[in-house]
Fold these 2 entries.
Entry 1:
Amino acid sequence: MQYDVIVVGSGPGGYVAAIRCAQLGLKTAIVEKYNTLGGTCLNVGCIPSKALLDSSEHYHNAAHAFEAHGIKLQKLGIDFGRMIKRKQEVVDANTSGITYLMKKNKIDVHQGVGSFKDKSTIVVTKGDSTATEITGKNVIIATGSKPSSLPFLPIDKKRIITSTEALTLTEVPKHLILIGGGVIGLELGSVYARLGAKVSVIEFMDGIIPTMDKALGRELQKVLKKLGMDFYLNHKVTGASVKGKEVTVTFDNAKGEKQELKGDYCMVAVGRVAYTDGLSLDKIGITVEERGRKIPVDEHLETSVKGVYAIGDVIKGAMLAHKAEDEGTFVAEIIAGQKPHINYNLIPGVVYTWPEVAAVGFTEEQLKEKGTKYKVGSFPFKASGRARASGDLDGFVKVLADASTDEILGVHMIGPRAADMIAEAVIAMEFRASAEDVTRASHAHPTYTEAMREACLAATENRAIHI
Ligand code: FAD
Ligand code: NAD
């Protein structure tokens, strides 16, 4: 079995790379060790977490928002088993959709663990240890990542869990202790807080979502506190133990004083680490970086071995599905001799809490550090007619524009449907729009997107209309 391209790993990086290769006329194979395609994103990441976020939001609204809209409910309850089953149905529909796309694009799927025999031969080993060899002129490594763990805090997958187990619990926790106030912690923490769990977040840094613009973390923390979440910022976890159904987490505050929390589940969400187990990279002379175990690549995403590329979570950069997809397309086009381009500064970051958080470009902190002179335009959702109608008054849009040229340098928003709204900012910035350019484009009324225009108006000449 000889191919132009073999892709190892079928997550959003791998399957998009395979489809783009096939579109470009390259004979393509994809190797996946699991029985279903789609990788972390479709099976235990983006899709199942969003399914549970949507279900829990419906419940939360029914319990807390319906009355204000004049809707009365006789009896409200949670069938958690059904909620988890629905999540799985959503996952199954998505993963079988990828199987269909492989067939449609005539991509051969080889199920089993892929490992290098040499730079163009991949041995595919199935669960029953039978092995097949396939060869490819090019190989794309898209093996993704797995949850990081803390050496002093062993994960038993029952009471001390990662996001993977948090997506398949059989009960709503009474008290969920989260280690890490990043994206996974806050999204899955929101799910269980909405369903009635007490949720405590222990975060090492002095704010939640610490890599995003600080104003976003502050606003999100305010909203999540209203949801009943407790935050222990600047705290360092030192250990956890399980006794029956009880987990005890020990941690130190900033002054070094020892504290502890007891709960029924503890979820560790302190980042993810690149996954290269089983690839036998040593056979082709690739050494992973010590920190994060990522595969080093050049500007064409080619490894130190000619014809072997790597994309997605397994290489440098943000661990995001759309970044992996963009790199999948990029590498396929490089192999086909084209000259694609990715603007890494314009890959948006989103947190699917409610309100949603979304950002693209430079943060204020980064602009200060770079010494760039910038202007700020902000618009609060409480001044938006659309947000008043829906009752989503928390949050704002903040636009950062170059002080002299007015070019938009960063957009940071927290508010209703911010995840969808950020696309306008990405497009504007891809075309190097000024804040004024956005103000000159018509925005339908009433929509949440008017907040983006108003923030741009505020940045242009402080001339927002509705504040
Ligand atoms: P992966 O999706 O991890 O896929 C890698 C695949 O390779 C896996 O299927 C694996 O089984 C396979 N594999 C590994 N080694 C081998 C081998 N030797 N042989 C054969 N197969 C192999 N990102 C977003 O952008 N938006 C979100 O909303 C979002 N939500 C998330 C929620 C959670 C709970 C988690 C955990 C992650 C989330 N992410 C989200 C991150 C996103 O899932 C990853 O960035 C994305 O899946 C990375 O894609 P990838 O193709 O690089 O790798
Ligand atoms: P993260 O990097 O977003 O957050 C980890 C958090 O844990 C950070 O705030 C960090 O300061 C904190 N932390 C680290 N060590 C700690 C310790 N010892 N004690 C207390 N806190 C500690 O990582 P994550 O939430 O695990 O998510 C992993 C990856 O998955 C991220 O790169 C993210 O991009 C991706 N993801 C994306 C989405 C999305 O796009 N909506 C959703 C989920 C996951």
Entry 2:
Amino acid sequence: MSDQRLIVAMDFASLDAALRLAEKIQPESCRLKVGHQLYTAAGPDAVRRLTDMGFEIFLDLKYHDIPNTVANACRAAADLGVWMVNVHAAGGPAMLEAAVAAVGSSGPRVIGVTILTSIDARQYEQIGYQGELADQVTKFAVLAQSSGLDGVVCSAQEARALRSRLGEDFLLVTPGIRPNGADLGDQQRVMTPAAAVAAGSDYLVIGRPITQAKDPRQVIQTIQGELELP
Ligand code: C5P
């Protein structure tokens, strides 16, 4: 089970660089996240090539547009055969429902972005949101659930509260994960893989600690070892 929890963020500038990493790791031990950088540089071929290698893909393009456009984008992602897509919960219920309807029950899981973890209290206020940031995260997650989404992306710090509020079946996908001893990079609020799972996370998104490692496969094994400890 633990081997299914790990999603490696393929934040690379080129398909070649992504393929070099993918060749060092195994589809049995992780899924891959293709985000804006790689998708913009290499397009759907990045998804196809990585899928052909046996990996399941989380297409992290955070769709946020009118319902018809988002529905069509989600359908295109489903046609590409991705395992998971995401949309901004701030797009509203009509957009969220259109996304879910577009992929159907056999398509990719659709998860919502609540408030990006890069938004701090000051920026939150500057955008014009009112009330507490944590409450707004919960509101977005509740909206995502009532609109039929499968889960949300959230910080591991938010996982425990969201898990108790939204129940066991709602997926929580958490970036900002750092194995013991790893460089923080630009992440501010981090959790170890084991702590994130204990807090209720279903899927751990980990980028640089794996992608920049000398031996990525070893790092993955170490993380899995930590997750298997009682
Ligand atoms: O390298 P690192 O482990 O920090 O990568 C985390 C990944 O998760 C990156 O692809 C980043 O864009 C993504 N992410 C994040 N925080 C969010 C949403 C996505 O770090 N709130």
